[in-house]
């Protein structure tokens, strides 16, 4: 009889992927908070703030599995192995991720891995930094007059992947009036800005850089697409930052206007009514 058969052990614990949001603990959903409090093991990403981890039970085992571009990171395969092992040991496992697990959080890969091993996974959404960042500045991602949609896109391609065709994206964004929200785009901002302009997006398109969105140390700069790389350098804005490109960013400037100036803008929009 063959001894090469592979047996899948029954899962006795459970696993939940939890979006911790952009950083401010008050932006956690109630469902996320309850999951964190009930967990016996938490595998925590680098971008999850300590104030959120503090909601875990005193008896919970907290494992830091930081992943950040350009820094020493825990291998993804090892994280998935830890998750599966803890579930097999009967633990209530929470995989705690910054933002939303399914928006550039590699949540899809982790769900696939666990399901392949016979473990069903629950996913709890979180507020993504691209939304929280611009909201904190008082501007929307969509607007009937300025943006008919929004594209969340990564500026950091998988090794071996050619990455985004920025010229094609620029043409699409220009034609469809889309806001571009770029994650992990700081290191490649110069090439991205050049290619977007080559694709037809005007150099004077408004752009925002938001670092540490929603946290007390949040910093931001308002600039244009053409000046984006220089602004990053001049303002010493680095990762983690989101880049928002599109006419909706004009709303940040409008938000800062005095009340009488805002009234003038409103009158212009309605033809002096």
Task: Outline the structure in words.
This protein has helices at residues 30-38, 50-53, 76-88, 107-116, 129-136, 166-176, 189-198, 228-234, 250-255, 259-269; strands at 14-19, 41-44, 61-64, 92-97, 121-124, 149-154, 178-183, 206-211, 219-224, 241-245. It has 273 residues and is of the alpha/beta class. The chain folds into 2 domains: 14-127, Tetrapyrrole methylase, N-terminal domain (Cobalt-precorrin-4 Transmethylase, domain 1); 130-255, Tetrapyrrole methylase, C-terminal domain (Methyltransferase, Cobalt-precorrin-4 Transmethylase, Domain 2, 2-Layer Sandwich). Strand 2 (41-44), helix 2 (50-53) and strand 3 (61-64) form a beta-alpha-beta unit. Helix 6 (166-176) crosses helix 7.
Task: Fill in the keyword field for this structure.
about 270 residues, alpha/beta, Cobalt-precorrin-4 Transmethylase, domain 1, Methyltransferase, Cobalt-precorrin-4 Transmethylase, Domain 2, five-stranded parallel beta sheet, five-stranded mixed beta sheet, about 35% helix, elongated, disordered N terminus
């Amino acid at each position: 009889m063959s001894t090469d058969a592979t047996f899948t052990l029954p899962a006795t614990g459970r696993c939940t992927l939890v979006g911790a949001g952009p950083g401010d603990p008050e932006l956690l959903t109630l469902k996320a908070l309850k999951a964190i409090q009930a967990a016996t093991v938490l595998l925590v990403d680098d971008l999850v703030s300590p104030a959120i981890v503090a909601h875990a039970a005193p008896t919970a085992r907290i494992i830091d599995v930081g992943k950040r571009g350009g820094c020493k990171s825990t291998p993804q395969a090892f994280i998935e192995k830890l998750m599966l092992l803890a579930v097999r040991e009967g633990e209530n496992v929470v995989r705690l991720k910054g933002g939303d697990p399914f928006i550039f959080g590699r949540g899809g890969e982790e769900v696939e891995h666990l399901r392949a091993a016979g473990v069903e996974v629950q996913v709890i959404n979180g507020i993504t930094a691209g939304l929280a960042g611009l909201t904190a500045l008082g501007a929307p991602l969509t607007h009937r007059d300025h943006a008919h949609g929004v594209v969340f896109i990564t500026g950091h391609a998988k090794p071996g992947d050619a990455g985004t065709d920025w010229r094609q994206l620029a043409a699409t964004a220009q034609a469809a009036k889309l806001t571009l929200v770029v994650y992990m785009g700081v290191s490649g901002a110069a090439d991205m800005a050049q290619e977007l302009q080559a694709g037809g997006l005007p150099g004077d398109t408004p752009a925002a850089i938001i670092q540490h969105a929603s946290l007390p140390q949040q910093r931001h700069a308002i600039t244009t697409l053409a000046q984006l790389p220089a602004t990053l350098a001049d303002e010493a804005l680095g990762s983690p930052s989101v880049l928002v490109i599109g006419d909706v960013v004009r709303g940040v400037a409008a938000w800062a206007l005095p009340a009488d100036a805002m009234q003038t803008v409103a009158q212009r929009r309605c033809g002096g009514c």
